[in-house]
Design brief:
It is a single chain. Helix content is 29%, strand content 24%. By secondary structure, it is an alpha/beta fold. It has a single domain, classed as Metallo-beta-lactamase, Chain A (4-Layer Sandwich). Strands 1-2-3-4-5 form a 5-stranded mixed sheet. Strands 6-7-8-9-10 form a 5-stranded mixed sheet, with no helix packed on it. The chain is globular and about 50 Å long. The protein starts with 5 loop residues before the first strand and ends with a helix.
């Protein structure tokens, strides 16, 4: 299953959102970023505890990269024997890195009970991770660690917090279609009705 991540190139270095899943990709990703932008990755955020987001956290920490998750993600990572971050966020947090700022936001339970999104308010870019599915997707994917009843309300919280995004980056689908959030909400409403 392919998984999208995202990185932000700033004057101070590169910020990575979610790690590769495949262990053979950890270093090549750092190398290609360095080659392309002549900058090092300085921070890495994982948006929930599943391995497609956290697998590289330990490796990147060993490379001197500051790694971040929420306290809840850390608890679930520990419980499920997944890789853990060095720095823990107990609340939604605004980060200023170089010329950019972004906010980590916990909208509620959905794909997992700990999923967060990243919001770039100025640029209107929403990094939705696995919480938001692609506009072409037929279902909300794997939900055994999630909350089917709360999913719709959680996506409504994302809509309120992140109005009119120019781009929505989703984890496992094409992100070029801006209707992904709306489509995910429709699927989540159906899911709630069927539960």
């Amino acid at each position: 299953m392919p998984a999208n991540g995202m990185y932000l190139v700033t004057n101070n270095g590169v910020v990575m959102f979610d790690t590769p899943w495949d262990t053979t990709q950890f270093q090549p990703l750092l190398d290609s970023i360095k080659l392309k932008h002549n900058k090092n990755v300085i921070m890495c955020f994982a948006t929930h505890w599943h391995s497609d987001k956290t697998a590289g956290l330990e490796y990147y920490r060993q490379q001197g990269i500051k790694t971040y998750t929420t306290v809840l993600t850390d608890e679930l990572s520990k419980k499920n024997n997944k890789k853990r971050a060095e720095y823990l966020m107990s609340n939604d947090t605004l980060f200023n890195v170089g010329q950019y700022s972004f906010e980590t936001y916990y909208p509620g339970q959905g794909h997992t009970i700990d999923n967060i999104v990243i919001w770039f308010e100025k640029e209107k870019i929403l990094y939705g991770g696995c919480l938001i599915k692609g506009a072409e997707d037929e279902n909300l994917g794997y939900l055994d660690d999630g909350n089917k009843t709360a999913y719709a309300a959680t996506l409504k919280n994302v809509q309120k917090k992140c109005p009119n995004p120019n781009f929505i980056i989703v984890a496992h689908s094409d992100w070029k279609n801006i209707n992904s959030l709306k489509h995910s909400l429709e699927m989540a409403k159906k899911l709630k009705r069927n539960n």
